Amino acid sequence: MASLSSFFYLSLFSIFPLIYSLTIPLSPWQTYPSQDPYQYLNFLVSSSLTRAFHLKNPQTISTTPLFSHSYGGYSISLSFGTPPQTIPLLMDTGSDLIWFPCTTRYLCKNCSFSSSNTPLFIPKQSSSSKIIGCRNPKCSWIHPNAQCKGCNPSNNCTQICPPYIIFYGSGATSGVSLSETLNFPNRTIPNFFVGCSVFSSRTPAGIAGFGRGQASLPSQLNLNKFAYCLLSRKFDDSTRSSPLILDNSSGSDSEKKSSGLIYTPFIKNPVIPGRSAFSVYYYVGLRKITVGERRVRIPYRYLRLDDEGNGGTIIDSGTTFTVMASEVREPLAAEFESQLVKKMNFSRALGVEVLTGLSPCFNVSSGTTRLKFPKLKLHFKGGAEMAVPPENYAAVVGDGSAVCLMVVSGRLGSGGPTIILGNVFWQNYYVEYDLRKERLGFKQQQCE
Question: What is the pTM of this model?
Answer without folding.
Answer: 0.85
